[in-house]
Amino acid sequence: MGIEFVLLEDLQQSEFALLGSEVVYEAMKKVRLIRDRLKMAHSRQKSYVDNRKRDLEFEVGKWVYLKISPMKGVLRFGKKGKLGPRYIGPYEILKRVGKVAYELKLPIELAPVYLVFHISMLKKCIGDPVSILPLEGLGVNENLSYEEVPIEIIDRQVKMLRNKEVASVKVLWKKHLVEGATWEA
């Protein structure tokens, strides 16, 4: 199936036309083969995607998280930073607007934001949104840390190491269950 190189001087006019059509025929055959293989690969990849693809739909009254812009340096919804949250919420769906848009019930702080969002900006809220505690009542600082306050010493123990004794106490902390108690030196 290789192409032979022949000097043009040695060829007659009819032989040149025959050789040229042969080269074109071989090239067309290869192009057809490549096209068929690309179609086959495309079909295989499409079937993989179609198996995993699911149409997203939300019901009115359900709760969803709202995606914050992932673009660097863009301040959206009062959130910014490298390790900032990707989603905020949860927010309740008030109504469906068209096939792929939903209107959300946003808090007063987000009043300047338009209430209708594309389905790609939403993520299903799993669990009961009523049980999510607000950060204000928990005494959480701006950097999302809080102060642990000991309530009671539950137990004491002294461990013997090679040549010294180490005393430790089991401390029950505020806003923790008994199972959350820790041993402290």
UniProtKB/TrEMBL annotation:
- Annotated Tf2-1-like SH3-like domain ranges read 61-125
Any Pfam family the entry gives: SH3_Tf2-1
The molecule here is called Tf2-1-like SH3-like domain-containing protein
Q: Which organism is it from?
A: Solanum verrucosum
